[in-house]
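Students often ask why inverse folding is considered easier than folding. One informal answer: many sequences map to the same fold, so there is more than one right answer. In these notes we will look at a single instance of the problem. The structure comes first.
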């Protein structure tokens, strides 16, 4: 197997747009447990919007495969300001429902308050193509994002780890669990399919930089 150190990791640019879009549509949305559970299928416009927002903040990373020269993994990040009130009304009900879940895991604790921060790095989406898994790329992309967040003088970073596999990657980079949400307790009717130790909950994770 090719060592993960051979992957070319760099800041995402406009030139990466189409490959990042393809990875979101053909890997992330198909593999993500929540989107599979609620059968989210109409994802093109949502994916394009995510990419444009992350390109604007210029703090996301892509990893190119050393042989194929194609993007094998992405870490889409954004800068979120305290008291940010994002309007998600333009999206369909299923996308809004996902945002509601992610928002619910923040209800009990404010990372902004606990870190005394006006803005934080939000590690939004991590996706590794199936052909490139097993190289530790998710953890390496998180590490690169943390390193860059320090260069941007961010006080801290946070993420919503939507399963245990993702959580382990964040823990490798010294993130702590601030809260968790059990999917079936949040909405037994729609999320009952998310069960078992790996996929049954979402974790709010964060660390100071």
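Output (designed amino acids):
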């Amino acid at each position: 197997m090719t060592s993960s150190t051979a992957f070319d990791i760099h800041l995402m640019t406009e030139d990466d747009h189409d490959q990042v879009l393809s990875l979101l549509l053909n890997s992330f949305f198909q593999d993500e447990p929540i989107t599979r559970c609620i059968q989210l299928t109409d994802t093109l416009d949502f994916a394009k919007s995510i990419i444009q927002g992350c390109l604007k903040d210029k703090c996301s990373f892509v990893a190119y495969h050393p042989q194929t020269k194609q993007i094998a993994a992405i870490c889409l990040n954004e800068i979120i300001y305290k008291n940010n009130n994002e309007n998600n009304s333009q999206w369909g009900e299923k996308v809004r429902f996902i945002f509601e879940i992610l928002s619910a895991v923040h209800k009990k604790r404010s990372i902004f308050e606990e870190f005394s921060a006006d803005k934080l790095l939000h590690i939004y989406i991590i996706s590794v193509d199936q052909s490139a898994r097993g190289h530790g790329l998710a953890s390496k992309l998180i590490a690169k994002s943390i390193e860059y967040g320090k260069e941007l003088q961010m006080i801290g970073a946070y993420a919503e780890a939507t399963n245990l596999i993702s959580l382990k990657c964040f823990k490798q980079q010294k993130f702590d669990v601030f809260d968790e949400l059990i999917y079936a307790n949040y909405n037994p009717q729609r999320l009952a399919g998310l069960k078992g130790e790996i996929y049954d909950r979402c974790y709010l994770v964060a660390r100071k930089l």
